[in-house]
Design brief:
single chain; 283 residues; ABC transporter involved in vitamin B12 uptake, BtuC
Amino acid sequence: MGFFLETLFGGLMAGMLYSLIELGFVLIYKASGVFNFAQGAMVLFSALAMARFADWIPLWTGLQGKLLVNLLAFVLAMGVMIIVAWLIEKLALGRLVNQEGITLLMATLGIAYVLDGETFQGGVLVSQEDLVAALIAAGLVIALTLFFQKTSTGRALRAVADDHQAAQSIGIPLSRIWVIVWSVAGFAALVAGVIWGSKLGVQFSLSLVALKALPVVILGGLTSVPGAIIGGLLIGVGEKLSEIYLGPYMGGGIEIWFAYVMALAFLLVRPQGLFGERIIDRV
């Protein structure tokens, strides 16, 4: 029983981290109606930014306290992500207002390549690091949910996602909204990058972790913040339990492909995901 609980808790904590990455996809989609293929690159870019600031701050200031250095590095990395968000709006998305969705989609692919190029320059044993990471991820998910539901900016974001032209017609500044949402997505990417970087090491393959969030997006629903939570937990628990209990009978490696098989099954029976909005086209 103890081993089962360890596996279950490990899956739940991994699921919260997947949910954190998926939030970046959900935030951008809710604000612009486009799937952000640059999210994985943002996770890697932000993690490397913080790692480099953590190396540079002691050289610049002489500070040696690890906690203070990491805190300052986090703040500076967040500043970098806000600048990135502003540049994305000014140089890319701001010039593509009211364009076709495929145009915005290709723009996010271009952003991903740019960012990747820049980065080249009680009997139950639970990891304390994983537990803290899961609590941080859960707190951020709750905060962003409240932000979307209870604040005027959150409501403006949803209005922009529904109809760019209608939002502009009632005075919602589209450029400011996009800078805000990309900044928030950058913050989510920074937190995810720090957490996953501490687990896996800050390396270029870190951007591939975001691919694990794609099945979570499909499962939870691309337009649902609560769906990000439920989808992440289901994927995290499912892949851990299947690897432990089915792996010995199926040759192992289930954890690698379990999420994608589960996502495919959902695409066949419920394409919009558990909590996604059903799209109805009227003619």
